[in-house]
Model the fold of this input.
Amino acid sequence: MNNVNRLSSLKQNGSDLRQMVEPLANYICATDQPKRALMSALAALVHEVESTNRAAITHFHTFSEN
Done:
């Protein structure tokens, strides 16, 4: 996943974070267990952030060694 390209395309299209959040919020609210769905979505977001941070640290160490 290339986050830089994704963010660039969002800015170029004039898209807003709300456009991505609204469908997720609608899904969470429509489930039988909205609290559980929200917690699951938050856990997935935290996992993605942690993965991105690990990748960034790895890249930083790789480039700083050279």
